[in-house]
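Hello,

Our lab assistant flagged a job as stuck in the queue for most of the afternoon. It eventually completed. Since we weren't sure the result was trustworthy after the delay, we are filing this so someone can double-check. Below is the sequence as submitted and the structure that was eventually returned. Let us know if re-running is recommended.
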Amino acid sequence: TTRLGHDPSVTALATELGTRAGGNPFFVEEAVQALVDAGRLQGERGHYHLPQALDAWVIPDSVHSLLAARIDRLPEQSKTLLQAAAVIGEAFPAEHLATLLEWPVAQCETVLGLLLAQDFLRLVADDGAAQYEFRHTLMQEVAESLLLDSQRQRLHARISALMEAHHPPDAVGHAASVCIAFHWAAAQQWAKAGEWNLQAARWAGTRDMGITIEQFQLALRHLDLAAPEPRVTQHRIAARAALIRMAQFTPVPREDVERAFAEGQSLAAEAHDVAGAAEMTISYGNEMLHRADAD
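-- returned structure --
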């Protein structure tokens, strides 16, 4: 009722919306917006009226379907920008989106203004700089889901490459490593994802043991999906050795340690990697000493 207003023509509609929403206020918002976009409701927020009674329910019965239909009705430029923003996933300045799409910043800001006015996005301040974010997480998820897999992967890969240019890999890693690894994985560039997971683990090592373990485990998973080549094999061995070493500082299931050691030894033997085999042996030996102390 607050969103529709109190005009007598919307009384029955308010009741119908309440029934169909099942207590979900976001459904009500999107259903009202769909009726406005279709020209069925006229007026402004809190003061709408129905010029003509609805003779049938004309909008989908799920929030996801409502949002998908609303996004599909957008002009092509607005839709392209919204979906690219959905792949970025977090708050972003217009300049980053313009770089991703290879658009002039002014063009990007114009389209962003339209999407703000249509309640797809909202403006937020980050250290005084203007940034944009989706008004609702579900809206972002639906916008991204409407992309073809190939489109989504290309955008993720481009985001990763742009971030790499500003945050090249180094010996200790950096905070951006987690995000870069995520986007390479979403692009299904497994070797790059795994390398950046290792970077992220190095960065997190003195900050958060949970993130460190997670990134080493992701490195294992992603590198195992990568096409075999010497560099990938070296990283696969290094990730397993690192996971074993982590067991000295934070709980790692014993079966995971044993599996990592067996796989790492096998990889090193197949690659005739003496240094890799030594790293595995030393890491496992230290863990055995740690277990003996613990027991």
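-- support follow-up --
The delay was a queue issue, not a problem with the job. The result is valid. The longest strand covers residues 121-126. The two ends are 66 Å apart (CA to CA).
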